[in-house]
Amino acid sequence: MEIINCIICNKDKFVDHISFQKSNSDDIFNLVKCECDFIYLNPRPDSKEISKYYNNKYVPHLIESKSFFYSLYKFVQKFTFKWKLKIIEKNSRKINSVLDIGGGSGAFCEFLKNKGKNAFNYDPYFSESDTLSISDLNEKYDVITLWHSLEHMHNVNQVFETINKHLDKNGMLYIAIPNFLAYERKYMKYNWPAYDIPRHLYHFTPDSIKRLLEKQNFEVVKYYTMIQDTFFNVLVSKDNNFLKKIYILLKSLTVIFLKKEKSSSILYVCKRI
Ligand SMILES: [Zn+2]
After folding, report:
1. In whole angstroms, how large is the CA radius of gyration of the chain?
2. Is the whole model's pTM more than 0.85, yes or no?
3. 17 C-alpha to center of ligand 1: Å?
4. pLDDT of 17-31, one tens digit each?
5. pLDDT digits (tens, 9 = 90+) for 97-124
6. From ligand 1's centre to the CA of 38, what distance in Å?
7. What's the CA-to-centroid distance between 270 and ligand 1, angstroms?
8. How far is the CA of 60 from the centre of ligand 1 (A)?
9. Which of the residues 95, 152, 203, 241 has the least number of beta carbons within 10 Å of its own beta carbon?
10. Which domains does the chain have, with CATH numbers?
């Protein structure tokens, strides 16, 4: 385990915020709140220790499975990929080349390739795919994407070094992450799937991701609600009360419709400052 300073303000001024006891183990994890309000896992498993928490049941890393949940995941993924491509086409000047960072087995890149795009998967954390290594990266990319991967990465500065080095000067950066202000979180308490302890190392809000991006010389130009994640978070949670789930889902959808900052996850469209 390692203790870290805040990745946004660099300080070590934090207080305990929420404690989690992992089921079927003695592991206890703490989310802390920094003086600057940023919430993160501290201490956390270091980059070697974390691998044991990505076991062979971790759905985003599965290449094939016969489970119902995996089939549902793949079904929803198909629609989500189309939606993502539409947003990229709408907000980018050109998309001749796309680099996806943290794309696991590379499913999004495969989708883009089937659409005739030049797409590359770079995932230093996923050893079983034929992902690029850092030395294979082309000089510049028109678009760089991180789909629910930033919150898993130990060395955020290094990730942004890669982005700064390899994003074309007019290129666009797309970051999708869970939102700690998600409306459904307060109803679901410890069952909120986006806690994903200890794989999710950071819990961003619209304010904290903007501060991190500014520090890395990026700004948010637009952001989108990822409504599919509200369905996922509410319906897939461990709570067995189905009526309660439907109530939370309807209420969350209404609130998010009125206020995007309450979305379960947000896709941020970013450019260099
Ligand atoms: Zn801080």
Report:
1. 18
2. yes
3. 14
4. 999 987 777 789 999
5. 999 999 888 899 999 999 999 999 888 7
6. 5
7. 21
8. 29
9. 241
10. 68-272 (3.40.50.150)
